[in-house]
Amino acid sequence: VEIGDVGYINKSGGFKVLFNALRSATDQPLVDGVRLQVPENFQPLHLTEFTHQADDIQDQVLAYGASKSISLHQNLSYVFVHFSITKSEGAVLMLRYPVRREDADQEERIRAYLRKYSKFWYRYATALGLHKEDCGLIFVDGFHQISNEFPSYHMAAWKDASLGMEAHIEAGLDVFADFQFGFSFESNELPQISRKSGPS
């Protein structure tokens, strides 16, 4: 993902890039060896001011749908994170390193550009497969970026969990070594759980 990417979230949950608004028509990104095309009346947006923050997210454990408490094992080789489930669907994310953030700072200039050209983008996106049930077009004006080293994160998500259920992570605290990760519910009636490590 780059600042200036225009696209949408497809049905599988991925970001489908259509073109990049900051690049010229002849310098569009290559996807599977094919250069992306641009919509009619395309004019690139010229931005000059960007913000870079090397450690925007420093918390190693993030949770949605659960409260958390963290404790360290005596030998400091493992971290235990205890969760109490507050939503039937949720996820926990464990990061290996702090996360970098990059933003485009010229908000008013971006808004004026979107007002002028977005109607052409929707027409173009519809021709390429954007459906009414999709989430609409997205203009990327900032992003968080994790390390390319594998694994840089572990994620566990649940569905149909009972509120108040207990869960925990047991993970290697020495994240610069093998970055071990385990996630489990403390219940005999388990919800649906999916796990992913990345980047992939």
SSE order and pairing:
Layout: E1 5-9, E2 15-20, E3 30-31, E4 34-35, E5 50-57, E6 61-64, E7 66-72, E8 78-85, E9 90-95, E10 99-104, H1 107-127, E11 138-139, E12 142-145, E13 153-159, E14 166-172, E15 181-185, E16 192-198
Gist of the model:
The chain has 200 residues and is mostly beta strands. The protein is built from 1 helix and 16 strands.
Residues in β-strands, percent: 35-45%
Whole-Å distance between the termini?
14 Å
The coarse silhouette is elongated
Mean pLDDT: 85
Rg (C-alpha, Å):
21 Å
Structural class designation: mainly beta
Order of helices and strands: EEEEEEEEEEHEEEEEE
State the major sheet. Answer: 4 strands, antiparallel
Structure explained in plain terms:
The chain has 200 residues and is mostly beta strands. The chain is built from 1 helix and 16 strands. The protein has a 4-stranded antiparallel beta sheet with strand order 6-9-13-16, with no helix packed on it. Strand 3 (30-31) and strand 4 form a beta hairpin. The longest helix has 21 residues, at 107-127. It starts with a strand and ends with a strand. The mean pLDDT is 85.
Keywords:
single chain, 200 residues, mainly beta, 1 helix
